[in-house]
Amino acid sequence: MGDAVDRILTQWARERPDLDCRPMGVVGRISQLQREVLLAQRATFARHGLDVPSFDVLAALRRAGEPYQLTPTALMRTALVTSGAITQRLDRLEQRGLITRGRSEEDGRAVVVTLTAAGLAALDDTLPDHLETERRLLAGLSDDDQEALAGLLRRLLINLGRVP
Length: 164
Hints:
InterPro entries: HTH_MarR-typ, MarR/SlyA-like, WH-like_DNA-bd_sf, WH_DNA-bd_sf. GO terms for molecular function: DNA binding; DNA-binding transcription factor activity. Pfam families: MarR_2. The structure is a single chain. The protein has 7 helices and 3 strands, in the order αααβααββαα. It has 164 residues and is mainly alpha-helical. It has 2 domains: 48 residues; 90 residues, Arc Repressor Mutant, subunit A (Orthogonal Bundle), CATH 1.10.10.10. It has a 3-stranded antiparallel beta sheet. The relative contact order is 0.10.
């Protein structure tokens, strides 16, 4: 059984047999999966009063461990966004009482972002639902298939320079 990308590849093979269109098979499917993942994440996070960018910030702070603090620069690097984008995210989260911004105790010049008790509760409440959404998205693959796919995607991302 084929998918929509197979149909596209068949059409290109017919119309341009001189071209190797196999990259479209991979990139086209990644693009379609990206859309499916984003739609599923949006629905999951909306049930918890969050959006994807908010979840990303809260999750980064939670993963940092107690006292659940990071600098805005560290958050910007984690989220791979501009300083303006991270500022907007932090403004929204602070208005909702999910984070606070203050001066670092270690370096009074540095600003730190801290996850509040409400932010911790919001993230911890959302995370199991988020993981279930991801499990549902990957249900068509065995554990071994998921591990193999993760390895291939990791290799591709590293090859593209996406390393910490």
